[in-house]
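Collaborator request, handled under Task 6.
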Amino acid sequence: MAVFLVIFAIVIDSLTLVMTLCLDFEGKGKVKREKFMSLFQNIFGGSDQSERENKMAWRTLTDLGQLNEIVNESTETPVVIFKHSTRCSISRMALRQFEQEFDLEGKVIPYYLDLLEHRDISNEIANRFSVYHQSPQLIVIKDGKAIYDRSHESIEAKKLADLV
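Structure tokens returned to the collaborator:
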């Protein structure tokens, strides 16, 4: 089963890359790409945004200033940052698995970072919290410091219970 999932992820990533290159080459830009991705996501299980809203109370990380808020919040309640590449099917699978396992509502504050839209924030997270950039990546911030950092298949919501 694991081999099938890896092959499936590679096929999806390849299709996404081909689609992006073809649409950019045609010069149709973002509008046509968004229509294709909407159809693609409907065929393969919907958009990441609607799934995040349905499963977890994510706070979307969109501004560098929010990192100061995260440091402050982490002195009261641990903060979880999930760094996600929206074009990567492996990242999408890790996100879905994390959301399905997550049962710490109210015990941690979950933040979601779209890496493609906010690479500057991801770079600052790496610098400020002394973690190596990866995608997908789960980072736990407590008392202003990264105390836990996992990527890819090592991301497990169940392990967070031991940290909070």
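The cover message to the collaborator said: "The helical segments are 2-26, 29-43, 48-55, 66-73, 89-101, 119-129. Residues 20 and 33 are 7 Å apart (CA to CA). Please let us know whether this matches your experimental observations."
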